[in-house]
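Ticket opened by: R.M.
Priority: normal
Category: complex prediction / small molecule

The reporter submitted a protein together with flavin mononucleotide and asked that the result be attached to this ticket for the collaborator who will pick it up next week. Submitted input follows.
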Amino acid sequence: MKLAILVGTMTGTAQLVAQELELRLDDGELQAQTRLMDGLDAAAFAGGGLFLICTSTYGQGDVPDNAKQLYESLQSARPDLSNVQYGVIALGDRTYAETFCNGGKRFDRVLSELGARRIGEIMLHDASAGTMPEEVAAEWIGGWISLCREQLGVVA
Ligand SMILES: Cc1cc2nc3c(=O)[nH]c(=O)nc-3n(C[C@H](O)[C@H](O)[C@H](O)COP(=O)(O)O)c2cc1C
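Result attached by the on-call engineer:
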C-alpha cells in the first residue's frame, strides 16, 4: 500500500507532523512519501491512490500559501477523483473560532466534491490546547491506517 502525504504549511508545523508519520509508517508493507504542496496542481492526484492531506490554516480561514496552487487547480480543473481515497490532518487554532481548521476542511470539501472518498474523520489539531500536533497525529494514525486497510481490502 502506498500513501502520499501532501503538506500545506507556512511555518513548518505540518511538515514536522508529516515527517514524524512517515518515519512511523514506512514499514515495508506501507510506503509513505511526504511531499510539500509547493508547485503541485491537480495532476498530483492523477492515477488515484491513497492520500493524506496534512495542512494548516492561515488568513481568513485559507489554505497556506504553498497549498494555494493545488487548491485552486482542483477547483478550476475539476478532475474526476473517484479513484482517490484520502484522509485529512487539519492544523489550526481555536482562537480563530469562525475559521478553525478551515484549510483542511477546504481540501476535504473540494476532494469530496470531485468524487474522492474520505476514510475516517478529519483529525483536527488546536494549537491553543497545549498538545503537540505530531504526538496527537502519531496516536491518530494507527486507527486511520487500520480503517484504510479495512476499506481498501488490504490484509494487515
Ligand atoms: C497569521 C495566522 C493566521 C492563522 N489563521 C488561522 C485560522 O484562520 N484558523 C485556524 O484554525 N488557525 C489559524 N492559524 C493557526 C495555524 O494554522 C496553526 O498555528 C498551525 O499549527 C500552523 O501550522 P504551520 O506551521 O504548518 O503553518 C493562524 C496562524 C497565524 C500565525
